């Protein structure tokens, strides 16, 4: 049985003539002082007509017992500082960054309107700014990149049967909990990009279902991801793709979770980068470092309908000014730092390649995809040693290292030093790898890795075929 609990608070208060029992918990003096200031303020207004204060029911909730609600402000501060120190040495992902002081202030000082009624100034301002920068007619702030992608897809598609064409590695297809099927009832034709880097126009068209054969699900939408695994989709190919799709009235959506990295790497404006697309999703909580949020931009009538779907998805946020202002400030202050993160990523890639580590993909932005088999160790060994010896956190089995804006340069140097230590401790392992692989192939891997470390690719990129968490080289 499900309960819609919106008015539960009132129901409880009107039925109960005794206060809910307070659990005996330790609440810090700071929190007690705050809570009593709040209840004093609540008690301040005069009682309603015909009632006296004595007659009003006293209601309260059992106090929270879980940490950190019960700790002092000083301890909270210490915990957050420890978190920031950990994040500075955490290469798992760029979603791991923590809000800095500027963003935390925004959480307190933002506008307080209801964004569903379009009455929140900071949300309205961010949406207008994003529409202007993308060159699209309208933009909408949502809680996550998954939501802006799935809303975009849902809004482009009207009535099944239809299909979506996307890269076999695309987040919209692989890592959004099957949302294309459950939200949009569409089938997916996934393209295995032959060059390992991006889908070509010809590959996309080969996978589009055209015509009206009733056995088929005609393609109505193509989704591209830019960057994909840190790699930048060549802009001229995107322009060609849009032209080709226009001939068949197929729409083009971009999962631009990391579009900001494209701008930082290429110097393109957001407007130029978004020009080939009918709609674009732009994450704010990845490289940009906002605590929450993603933008969906597109034509005005498209965003109007997407807003409707957002409500149906349960994604309408009431007083979301704090999130919108934090995102606005992050765009203004953290976006300019991205070239620095790219330079650090290149330093990491080059340092590792000099030690004999192979790269699976070119380091075009902030991601470094490593394969440590050539130096005779496993990803698991590396992960454990990184944590134990250097206090560095990374993922395995996927060899993806992300340099985000809070990574400290020393963490990069320490990681390179660690790999040097491990290589020197495992020389036999490296020899065995060379024998297994063959000298010519080993040379080719080293040559390719050197090129990838400079962000270059030529010919086919061989790197990890899938993005599933289960992917393992072992
Ligand atoms: C390429 C890409 N698109 C979309 C998303 C979804 O973003 P969110 O985690 O905000 O739902 C992610 C998340 O990592 C991503 O990497």
TrEMBL record:
<keyword id="KW-0456">Lyase</keyword>
<feature type="domain" description="Aromatic amino acid beta-eliminating lyase/threonine aldolase">
    <location>
        <begin position="90"/>
        <end position="373"/>
    </location>
</feature>
<comment type="similarity">
    <text>Belongs to the threonine aldolase family.</text>
</comment>
<dbReference type="InterPro" id="IPR015424">
    <property type="entry name" value="PyrdxlP-dep_Trfase"/>
</dbReference>
<dbReference type="Pfam" id="PF01212">
    <property type="entry name" value="Beta_elim_lyase"/>
</dbReference>
<dbReference type="GO" id="GO:0005829">
    <property type="term" value="C:cytosol"/>
</dbReference>
<dbReference type="InterPro" id="IPR015421">
    <property type="entry name" value="PyrdxlP-dep_Trfase_major"/>
</dbReference>
<dbReference type="GO" id="GO:0006567">
    <property type="term" value="P:L-threonine catabolic process"/>
</dbReference>
<dbReference type="InterPro" id="IPR015422">
    <property type="entry name" value="PyrdxlP-dep_Trfase_small"/>
</dbReference>
<dbReference type="GO" id="GO:0008732">
    <property type="term" value="F:L-allo-threonine aldolase activity"/>
</dbReference>
<dbReference type="InterPro" id="IPR001597">
    <property type="entry name" value="ArAA_b-elim_lyase/Thr_aldolase"/>
</dbReference>
<dbReference type="InterPro" id="IPR023603">
    <property type="entry name" value="Low_specificity_L-TA-like"/>
</dbReference>
<protein>
    <recommendedName>
        <fullName>Aromatic amino acid beta-eliminating lyase/threonine aldolase domain-containing protein</fullName>
    </recommendedName>
</protein>
<dbReference type="GO" id="GO:0006545">
    <property type="term" value="P:glycine biosynthetic process"/>
</dbReference>
<keyword id="KW-0663">Pyridoxal phosphate</keyword>
